[in-house]
């Protein structure tokens, strides 16, 4: 990441909240530490609470001590970062309060302004309207919208329409932090920066694609919020669908925001609808029950505080997606995500087809495995390619064994700290680069596809299937690829 030289004001609505303290301010602190903020860039927290700039600085200092261990005792970066921090007391629902931004000269001297809306989406429309009323929606001013953007197509459209009554599309940055991960961005480099992979990136060579986002945590005291969302809205509609788009899209004409997003929207429009009876053969949903994770018993979904035993909200989803175009005809995309699973990781697996004809002996043929490209997003960031190799030795015959060619980003770039996703995304907003952000039509197309699945679920009285915490989801999810003659990567 090269330095952003143009100064700007970064205003964080919900500046004292959990997202700001855990993610946004630590990300900005790291940008400061790496010398990527212009000398006169300012960071302004905004929330209803009445506090002084000094009080806010102390609150941020405490958050950094907790969430950025390297900041403890740092007498080099913190003094510079502290000077950037100020605070404005603003009730997002009181339009008159927004005049205080003018008192702080936000956007003065033709400075760019980033308004980060780390609030409930219900407030996005009123915040944007109040900003516009106070002339804080000029062309050089931008708004960042945190997910969730609604709970279905209709509510998402209502939120976006409210925002875009006051800001044009080029000023709106809809964030998905998964797209800021180094390995996700590296997916574009792998595909379009190497002659090795792109010629083999189609249905003639790839058998199936698997995308897994697995969590060991439960709802962690957020039962009321999560039960209104569920795994489909919380993970599939945004994170997983975006990963699918990056895997499946055609090469863009150039590496700019609209060229990349134009190709992603083509993938979304080519997704085969999963509606009606197809939802029962192409999808599996589940709810976790109590079980063991790392030797410790954990509660089930209905054992969590505030739970309702009548809930049919899914904590696990597995599905088969199909993309109806020339590149991917006949290639299944298996997607899954869930809470309280056996291991925490996120990965993309490209499973290649078998060799068309094997020249090896029967024994070697039994050992012959197909090539796999595995892109691990978390907890570690790495890429591995499984190839067949001869076992060293002078024994008779050709003994083969699969070997992984590994690229660990940590080891390959051992002198480079791997930035957190929010660091890259915040810097891109300040640079006015929307490549890694979602466009209005992307959000709508994703919701349209997901709404069809959820509508089919709602037409039945069938409850989500139970699975034990620490397992890999309901047994039916294991069978999802098996009935196609395939298996999940970890089986």
TrEMBL record:
GO MF annotations in UniProt: glucose-6-phosphate dehydrogenase activity; NADP binding
Binding of substrate, residues: 177, 181, 215, 234, 339
Catalytic site positions: 239
Which BP terms from GO are recorded?
glucose metabolic process; pentose-phosphate shunt, oxidative branch
Location of the Glucose-6-phosphate dehydrogenase NAD-binding domain: 11-186
Database matches in InterPro entries: G6P_DH (IPR001282), G6P_DH_AS (IPR019796), G6P_DH_C (IPR022675), G6P_DH_NAD-bd (IPR022674), NAD(P)-bd_dom_sf (IPR036291)
Residues reported in the UniProt entry to bind NADP(+): 48, 147
Q: Which domain of life is it from?
A: Bacteria
Q: What class of enzyme is it?
A: oxidoreductase
Domain Glucose-6-phosphate dehydrogenase C-terminal: start-end pairs: 188-489
Record-stated family: Belongs to the glucose-6-phosphate dehydrogenase family.
What is the name of this protein? Answer: Glucose-6-phosphate 1-dehydrogenase
Give the originating organism: Marinomonas spartinae
